[in-house]
Amino acid sequence: MSIFEYNGSALIAMVGKNCFAIASDRRLGVQLQTIATDFQRIYKIHDKLYIGLSGLATDAQTLYQRLVFRHKLYQLREERDMKPETFASLVSAILYEKRFGPYFCQPVIAGLGDDDKPFICTMDSIGAKELAKDFVVAGTASESLYGACESMYKPDMEPEELFETISQALLSSVDRDCLSGWGGHVFVVTPTEVIERTLKGRMD
Amino acid sequence: MECVFGLVGNGFTLIVADTLAVHSILVHKSNEDKIMILDSHKLLGASGESGDRVQFTEYIQKNVALYQFRNGIPLTTAAAANFTRGELATALRKSPYFVNILLAGYDKETGPSLYYIDYIATLHKIEKGAFGYGSYFSLSMMDRHYHSGMSVKEAIDLVDKCIMEIRSRLVVAPPNFVIKIVDKDGAREYAWRESIKDTIAPNTA
């Protein structure tokens, strides 16, 4: 079994009309055994920037701590929050630092940039950035997620419709993957509010 | 093999561990205490490579005590868990400790808590958890019978059910277990469950 599949994970980020949604599954496993069904994979960096970390849970936790540290330093020096594009470059640089002994994580970054324009990107475990205009996926269920998102996505969705779409895409994909699932966690972020919801899907 | 499991009840947390010290096929000792009392209100149940287990848990215990000496107040359970994870994570890519840990604690403000810390430094706060081959049986028993807010009596009944399941269904089942509890009155040993007792042989001089 690959080290990326040790804990199991599923992540999606989608762009809507002046908003974005980021969703993850909730399973924490150790290979075939499920340890917890309330594991958090999506972290807030600031009000308009969220990062989801799939892959090995220990590296996701370490990486998150390092990123929060760097962002807090940036906030102290610059007296403002980091733009999503800048943050993505930071994550990419931190991952490439460990090129020959990498963090076994695949991040999904979603934020509202200048003029509240939605920004999403993903990268591989050594920091190769992949910008997208519509959706990005990561995790053990990524192949199913690509298919589900490609068929369900349409551009310029309002927050409510975006929530429905991302939830359906996530739940239908994790149902085909034994290492991820046990519900979902969805954040829908608009310029004025953040709605956090928990999904109940097939609990197995 | 090594069995450690734990659960959170109403105002207390329990950790149960087997007491066998094994080297390959040989049982060195059948009353080895694998649940360390970290400080007045914390327990650290550890399983894994014996040298790493003793070294690492003693290191954590001494650092927790040092914090209290330096700062005058004890660490919270969450802080101790995060410190432990940090030490495991730092060592992971240099010379990893092969120790799996269940950290139980009671804080006045937040009540009882239990943390799962893998040997590769995965940290998660849980209500019930287990390590080792025994986890296949104890986790299933706890999934069936556990509910939040159990009394001590109910929790001990559940623990005994888990121990019975491990003894009857695990081929290399450890014979003896120790149960430790932590609640508002502190961390202490609660009971032993022994099916093999070490007896001192009479002096035949």
TrEMBL record, chain A:
TM helices/strands, residue ranges: none
UniProt xrefs under Gene3D superfamilies: Glutamine Phosphoribosylpyrophosphate, subunit 1, domain 1 (3.60.20.10)
Q: Which cellular compartments is it found in?
A: Cytoplasm; Nucleus
Keywords, A to Z? Cytoplasm, Nucleus, Proteasome
Chief localization class?
cytoplasm
Q: Which InterPro entries match?
A: Ntn_hydrolases_N, Proteasome_beta_3, Proteasome_bsu_CS, Proteasome_sua/b, Proteasome_suB-type
Would you tell me the Gene Ontology cellular component terms? cytosol; nucleus; proteasome core complex, beta-subunit complex
Q: Which domain of life is it from?
A: Eukaryota
Please name the GO terms of the biological process aspect recorded for this protein, alphabetically: proteasome-mediated ubiquitin-dependent protein catabolic process
Q: How does it assemble?
A: Component of the proteasome complex.
* Similarity comment: family membership: Belongs to the peptidase T1B family.
What the protein does comes down to: Component of the proteasome, a multicatalytic proteinase complex which is characterized by its ability to cleave peptides with Arg, Phe, Tyr, Leu, and Glu adjacent to the leaving group at neutral or slightly basic pH. The proteasome has an ATP-dependent proteolytic activity.
Indicate what this protein is called per its UniProt record. Answer: Proteasome subunit beta
TrEMBL record, chain B:
Primary localisation category: cytoplasm
Subcellular location(s): the record lists:
Cytoplasm; Nucleus
Entries under Pfam families matching the protein:
Proteasome
Under InterPro entries, the record lists: Ntn_hydrolases_N, Proteasome_alpha, Proteasome_beta2, Proteasome_sua/b, Proteasome_suB-type
SUPFAM superfamilies for this protein: N-terminal nucleophile aminohydrolases (Ntn hydrolases) (SSF56235)
Which keywords belong to this entry? Cytoplasm, Nucleus, Proteasome
A single GO BP annotation from the record? Answer: proteasomal protein catabolic process
What Gene3D superfamilies does UniProt report for this protein, alphabetically? Glutamine Phosphoribosylpyrophosphate, subunit 1, domain 1
- The answer to whether the entry has keyword Nucleus is yes
What subunit structure does UniProt give? Component of the proteasome complex.
- What's this chain's function? Non-catalytic component of the proteasome, a multicatalytic proteinase complex which is characterized by its ability to cleave peptides with Arg, Phe, Tyr, Leu, and Glu adjacent to the leaving group at neutral or slightly basic pH. The proteasome has an ATP-dependent proteolytic activity. Component of the proteasome, a multicatalytic proteinase complex which is characterized by its ability to cleave peptides with Arg, Phe, Tyr, Leu, and Glu adjacent to the leaving group at neutral or slightly basic pH. The proteasome has an ATP-dependent proteolytic activity.
Q: Which family does it belong to?
A: Belongs to the peptidase T1B family.
What's the name of the protein? Proteasome subunit beta
Organism for this UniProt entry: Nelumbo nucifera (Sacred lotus)
